[in-house]
Amino acid sequence: MSAILRQNAEELFAHELEELQKSDSGKRPANWKLTPTAAVTYLTGGKLKNGFEVTPKYIGNKRLMEIAVATLTTDRALLLYGLPGTAKSWVSEHLAAAISGDSAMIIQGTAGTGEEAIRYGWNYARLLAEGPSEKALVETPMMRGMKDGKIVRIEELTRIGADVQDTLITILSEKTLPVPELNIAVQAVKGFNVIATANNRDKGVNELSSALKRRFNTVILPVPDSIEEEIDIVKRRVESFEKVMELPAEKPALQEIRRIVTIFRELRNGVTLDGKTKIKVPSGTLSTAEAISVVNSGLAMAAYFGDGQLKATDLAAGIIGSVVKDPVQDKLVWQEYLETVVKLREEWKDIYRACREL
């Protein structure tokens, strides 16, 4: 059997979840695999009583994870909101893995997502042959989650059209999914809830109606507070990528990760880290996720087209590709940053040369 490219969180961290269940003696909500306290430990990391070390999945304010987990114990759904690349999907997946042991109950929101992707669909061959029946019904992750008492994830909720979004109102408020064609309704089992992710920066965003907003408790996931925090996130995610992809490259030096994170933070904030030089801000978000992607692509370049050691020449194309989203406006922003900031840093001469060559 071929190796799986990307395992689900509950498979990748099965050992940690198992250890947490063993040491988890508190009261669990119905159909939860862990207590709320243990679920937060799984997300933020920590040492168990038996000495077992749980790795952090979310590096940031622990209180945000406590609020998120507490929300899911109530009848309110959870909306993870923030800029692109602030680990909304990552947190959503790990919350579902910790609570339900199943992060695969997922509905991907797009401009083309219709009501049938959220509520239910039909096997039309069977429908024409036999007429409306439960056997002809095609269950969605939402319907299965309600029946099994599991967490259902909706990715990019604001990309779904407003009229389709509002099909969630009855599900979230009444915990019921009516099937009028069969004159039945699916009642949600305890343990069911919804985690949605959304951002307000992308094009094609559809605002949530006030009626739908009231059904959610919103947790805003910010960009990392400090540069050290962001470096730690990038380092951990890159190491995970290396392990899965089995790249024949050396682990990236911490200084390379630091330089990428510094570039992204400065351009994102519009000022150098020392606060002395103001910088124009590009149109892209330059998130932590983008920094991870740049280092990963640099590692691939170093492994297959270099000597296996990550260098500035391996990173240059990824940096420029992330910064220059608008070929006119962003190109000028990047060139100015290159000449007024990068060029003046003695230890960054290699990055300056590599970027100038491209």
Q: Which range does the strand content fall in?
A: 5-15%
Structural class: alpha/beta
CATH superfamily of the largest domain: P-loop containing nucleotide triphosphate hydrolases
| DSSP, total strands | 11
Q: What is the CATH architecture term of the largest domain? A: 3-Layer(aba) Sandwich
Uncertain runs with pLDDT below 50, 5 residues or more?
A: none
Biggest beta sheet summary: 5 strands, parallel
Q: What do we call the CATH topology of the largest domain?
A: Rossmann fold
Number of spatially distinct domains: 2
Radius of gyration of CA atoms, rounded to a whole number: 23 Å
**Major sheet: arrangement of strands:** 4-7-10-3-11
Distance from first to last alpha carbon: 41 Å
H/E order of the elements? HHHEEHEHEHEHEHEHHEEEHEHHHHHH
The coarse overall form would be globular
Arithmetic mean pLDDT: 92
CATH class of the largest domain: Alpha Beta
Short recap of the structure:
By secondary structure, this protein is of the alpha/beta class.
